[in-house]
Write a structure and sequence with these properties.
Elements: H1 2-5, E1 8-12, H2 25-37, E2 42-45, H3 57-71, E3 77-80, H4 86-95, E4 103-107, H5 116-129, E5 134-138, H6 140-143, H7 149-158, E6 162-167, H8 172-181, E7 187-190, H9 196-201, E8 206-209, H10 216-227, H11 231-239, H12 242-248, H13 255-263, H14 280-293
Helix pairs in contact: 2-3, 4-5, 5-7, 7-8, 10-11, 13-14
């Protein structure tokens, strides 16, 4: 069942670039293998962490196909299909090859700052046209608008193929309202690595994670204990990762993740403007943390 496939840890996959700014498909293949070997439960492509706003639509379509083919059914795949124009999202649903995906992840429209009714109508339209189950993605810090618990629950009740939400509002009480009132089987996933264990303790199903790009095995150990109900051990394991997780976001996402991965020799550090590479101070911090906590 799709809902069972998408519990635990989904990794929000980065998009590596060559030094001249092209998509580095060899590095992307290595990253897919790295996180799968690290034990992640599923992969999320073309989300925030993939620098998707800087990718041209043809690049997105090729990346979607490449990731699907390289995963080759080893883990489930969630494909990012979002934007601030509803009609453009419908174009993505038509143009992307979604045959290898299990669900789509669709972000709240950014910049436009729609009303709650506007958000409802947007996602209603997306869900009516989607050939796959839909996971909502609420991230007010990037989109400029918060989708309330009430709007999320309205969509969950009205649209049978809206199966969950990635909640990155940072508001644990909002998440709790969703947990307390959701239809049976509706997934509540953390959009913040640092809130994962708290949300799971309250009944959430897991996280769509940035940190799992960098240290998948260690992060999976933490969440594995939480899935088994051993939250004390999960918290103990997480303490060794806490400083590194915070460092991932000091200069923005995915700047920190790419900086750490470049220090580990996995990818190059190249970003697409307006994002820039991590500072020397951040590189030095990751060098220390990787050695201190054996994060390779």
């Amino acid at each position: 069942m799709i809902r069972e496939k998408l519990t635990g840890v989904g990794v929000a996959m980065i998009t590596p670039f060559t030094s001249d700014g092209r998509v580095d498909y060899q590095a992307l293949a290595r990253m897919i293998d790295y996180v799968i070997e690290g034990g992640v439960d599923y992969i999320v492509a073309l989300g925030t962490t993939a620098e998707t706003p800087t990718l041209y639509m043809p690049e997105r379509a090729v990346i979607a196909m490449f990731i699907t083919n390289h995963i080759a059914g080893r883990v489930p795949l969630v494909m990012g299909c979002g934007g601030n124009s509803t009609s453009e999202v419908l174009d993505q649903l038509r143009e992307f090859d979604l045959r290898g995906a299990d669900a789509i992840l669709s972000v709240t429209p950014y910049y436009n700052k729609p009303s709650q009714e506007g958000l409802y109508q947007h996602f209603r339209t997306v869900s009516e046209h989607s050939p796959l189950p839909v996971i909502l993605y609420n991230i007010p810090g990037r989109s400029g608008v918060n989708m309330t618990a009430e709007t999320t629950l309205r969509l969950a009740r009205d649209m049978k193929n809206v199966i969950g939400i990635k909640e990155a509002s940072g508001d644990i009480e909002q998440m709790q309202r969703i947990l307390d009132n959701r239809p049976e089987g509706f997934l509540v996933l953390s959009g913040d690595d640092g809130m994962t264990l708290d949300l799971m303790r309250r009944g959430g199903e897991g996280v769509i994670s940035v940190a799992a790009n960098v240290f998948p095995k260690r992060f999976m150990q933490c969440v594995g204990h939480a899935k088994q109900g051993d939250f004390d051990r999960a918290e103990e394991e997480y303490r060794a990762l806490d400083e590194a997780v915070h460092a991932l976001f000091e200069e923005g996402n995915p700047v920190g993740a790419k900086c750490a991965l470049s220090m580990m020799g996995k990818i190059g550090p190249t970003m697409r403007l307006p994002l820039v590479e991590g500072s020397q101070a951040l590189r030095e911090k990751f060098s220390r943390l990787i050695a201190e906590y054996d994060l390779r």
